[in-house]
Write a structure and sequence with these properties.
By secondary structure, the protein is mainly beta. The chain has strands at residues 12-14, 23-27, 32-33, 37-46, 62-67, 70-73, 79-84, 89-99, 103-110, 114-116, 121-133, 148-152, 159-160, 164-171, 174-175, 180-185, 188-191, 196-200, 209-212, 218-222, 227-233, 241-242, 245-258. The radius of gyration is 17 Å and the shape is globular.
């Protein structure tokens, strides 16, 4: 179910539908770095919570990072790969990115719209993820000016289990009230060399985890487990049609939480 009949402000609830959410992954294993490094990314469109079916990606429209107000285009660095999912192979992409200076690197992917035949709609998940070097914050909270995005109100790479994550859903820079947020966990971390999921470290929820933004476009989620969590604001974007069919233009953000030592 991609829409809820009624909006309950800032609530976390269980949907009647199974946890079968499409999620665009922009994954790198380490999101906090102490030294300069070349970090690998895997861009995979899949069902991460259940380690499920993966979808073919078309050539992305753009991939870049923002660092201290400087935008670095990475689109031409993307290389096509075959992702060997738990149930099928799919077309995906990878990139290697140099991180040298201290600060926040905000990565943003705009994938090509994907046709979902079972719903007869297109899906385009504009996705953000974060890497920090040196423990120096330099603008993680800043919106990127994307058509739709989730602006974090907590540092997205410095969270602990038992704490909360809060975000604001934006469409053309304005908050979006009453939008459905699907929430997923990467239950099998990618094997970066083999281009496949690694061992399963968590079982999916029996029903989809869902939140609804309040009148200011805000939602909050309590983090129950360490690892990578993704949030997708369904249909929050301004573009509603592609090639004569409905388009769900979603905003996705990935965060990382760890256990407090």
């Amino acid at each position: 179910m991609r829409r809820l009949a009624s909006a309950v402000a800032a609530a976390i609830m269980l949907s009647a539908a199974p946890a079968l959410a499409h999620f665009q992954m922009v994954y790198t294993p380490s999101v906090t770095l102490e030294k300069p490094a070349t970090i690998p990314f895997k861009l995979v469109f899949t069902h991460p919570f259940e380690n499920g079916h993966a979808m073919d990606m078309g050539k992305p429209e753009s991939f870049f990072y923002l660092f201290k107000d400087k935008k670095v285009d990475l689109t031409d660095s993307l290389k096509p790969i075959t992702w060997h999912g738990a149930h099928n192979d799919s077309k995906a992409f990878e990139a290697d990115v140099k991180v040298q200076r201290n600060g926040d690197y905000i990565f943003a992917l705009t994938p090509a719209p994907y046709y979902e035949g079972s719903e007869d709609i297109y899906i385009q998940q504009i996705t953000k993820s974060y890497v920090n070097k040196g423990g120096v914050p330099t603008g993680w909270e800043a919106p990127l000016g994307l058509p739709t995005e989730i602006q974090p109100l907590n540092k997205p790479y410095n969270l602990f289990t038992g704490s909360t994550f809060t975000g604001v859903v934006l469409s053309e820079g304005k908050p979006v009230p009453g939008v459905e947020i699907e929430i997923e966990y990467i239950a099998a971390l990618p094997d970066m060399k083999a281009n496949k999921p690694g061992p399963v470290i968590a079982q999916p929820a029996s029903s989809a985890l869902v939140a609804i933004t309040d009148e200011k476009g805000v939602f909050t989620f309590g983090i129950p487990k360490a690892g990578f969590w993704g949030f997708a604001a369904l249909g929050s974007g301004p573009v509603k049609e592609f090639e004569g069919k409905e388009l769900s233009q979603d905003a996705v953000i990935w965060i990382y939480a760890e256990d407090m030592k």
